[in-house]
Amino acid sequence: MLTLRDGMPPLVETPPALAEMCELLAAGTGPVAIDAERASGYRYSSRAYLIQLRREGSGSFMVDPIGFESLEPLHRTLEGTEWILHAATQDLPCLNEVGLYPTALFDTELAGRLLGYPRVGLATLVETLLGFRLAKEHSAVDWSTRPLPLPWLEYAALDVEVLVELRDLLAAELIETGKDEWARQEFDYLRSFVPAVRTDAWRRTSGVHRVRGRRALAAVRELWETRNEIAEQRDVTPGRILPDAAIVVAATALPTDRDALMATKGFHGRGADRYASRWVAALNRAAQMDEEDLPTRTPRGDGPPLPRAWAEKDPVAARRLVLAREALTAVAEEHHLPVENVLTPDYLRRTLWTPPKAREPEALAAAVADQLAGYGARPWQVELAGPVLVDAILTADAEPEVVVPPAALTDD
């Protein structure tokens, strides 16, 4: 079991303590291991409630960001250093929120994926490569709790204890396998990562597929948006106010008053009764909505349709997709990579649904490369996947009579 080699690091909560920590960090050498704890499942926001750091020659530190108006001293100290993060896309947004931006980074989870490790969780990689076991019993606690219990703090400090050593082993393996340049491009791309803003996020309500009719869908949307407003105002995760299951049963039953709503079987939750008047108002808005304003079953988007519909809408495009998926799977196996790391599925679908018009091989290859790069594919991905897509486009065009059964086109 992994333990803290230098004992429990102090919790930095004041400007003088932050200044002292920054001096010690600046005196260290090499990259800085960083982790952040959020209150996922408890709070609406994704803010950082604890930041852990470790650097060789400096030791480990823990910062409580809640009491600080600014972490500018820490930002200045970290400027020009390489950050080591595990699953950077999870922590970068909340670190950016407090003014911390990397000038270089190394993502140990992504490195594990590029190296073909079947499981890339931090605990698994630490045990596989370093032989230590990481305790995970506090991974789902409410980090907005104050004061933070000592066992939680010890658990958090362990998350950066061996990140430097893990990074060094993975970096050496990336060089040995010739994947270090791929990793460099990926890590550089991550520096500007911004979470995608979901359109029609209410459509992800669990169980919405059971709702029948556009008016019931409108009720789901109105209830979801009302719940989201309440959750944001209270900074509470939405499911703690009203579970998705309650939204679905209310939208299906469409009760018109408080008594009928509260009598609806399955309508429950901490905020079911407290906000009953707001739920009823949401349901009434849906009931009174003009027909043209009701949501459709399939969302309108700027991208291609779901793959299962391609065979009917564009049989040649369906053939392109089947050919490209088969070839990309072979490329992924050859290089010991997850196929989604060879090329983002959305980039694949967009390129094959609306490919370049050129059909002369060299011109098509250049156009495909430009199209992929425009979506965000990195050069190493374009180099691996580009020829696959070109071949799929040319082959499908040459065999338009080949019919692809819809069952061969599963959605990603």
TrEMBL record:
CDD domains (alphabetical): RNaseD_exo
Residue ranges constituting the HRDC domain according to the UniProt record: 213-293
Region span, Disordered: 290-310
SUPFAM superfamilies: HRDC-like, Ribonuclease H-like
PANTHER family documented for this protein: RIBONUCLEASE D
Record's protein name: Ribonuclease D
Annotated organism of origin: Nocardioides endophyticus
